[in-house]
Write a structure and sequence with these properties.
flat, 293 residues, Cobalt-precorrin-4 Transmethylase, domain 1, 36% helix, 3 domains, 9 helices, binds iron/sulfur cluster, four-stranded parallel β-sheet, alpha/beta, Rossmann fold, 19% strand, single chain
Amino acid sequence: MNVRIARNSGFCFGVKRAIKIALKTSEVNHEVVTLGPIIHNPQMVAKLESQNIFKVDNIKQIKGRPTIIRSHGVKKEILEELEKENIEIINATCPYVSKTQDYAKSLSEDGYNLIILGDSNHPEVQALRSYVDKKVIIVADADELEDKQFKKVGIISQTTRRVEDLQKLVKKLVPKCHEMRVINTICNATTIRQISTLDLAKESDIMIVVGGKNSSNTKMLAKICKSLVKTYHIETASEIDKMWFKDKQDIGLTAGASTPNWVIVEVYNKMLECVGNINKVDNIEDIPGFKEE
Ligand code: SF4
């Protein structure tokens, strides 16, 4: 049996950067907080607590502690409130997300009807929307678009969506508007993870997708795999059932951009154990197929 991992699995640039900022801040402060989970991975959030980096859910819970803004940003009003309360802000918003916020603002100011491809309940999309004063249309899929004509349309996307979904939305809008401006704000780290996961899923009898159940990019990887092969989305090795691998020859593993390396290594080793292979690894670099982004 072969157990292989998709190239580029695990932490992306923005997540590595946010965690580095949080750890550096905790070195010079007794306690720091993150407003919402710093990344969508419960195992990493729990680990950071042991380094005095705590998640809070609202401004009242901050109690004067330095506050880290998570990789996918927060609403503009929340930043303004933090400033008003004189709370020390350490902004770990991924630069790609900040750039998308700038695009949302400028498209709206230039008179475009803004359409965002994304999940309206996701914090990144809610933050994006907060930078626009006018009405914004948010669709998770082109099929959700209401049947109406537009004069000027500006389109951007949540950073973790699929290029194909953005193309579908653009195609649907072309006959419905006079002028269109599309900015592809899907992050490259997302796209390369989706492509390498798709490539591996095509060659596998089963796929294991590891990452937060609340992680948008991990859920997208699971969706891609499910369209091709039997797929399980798990957060930790403890969820693995040996029976999943019965009569399977090629076994694939992939992980979201917010999944820590140590979780991926634990999952890989448990998979090996399930198929009777004793060659466990200590590092993600030792897993067949892995290639750093
Ligand atoms: S997925 Fe892309 S946009 Fe999101 S944190 Fe990672 S690098 Fe930044």
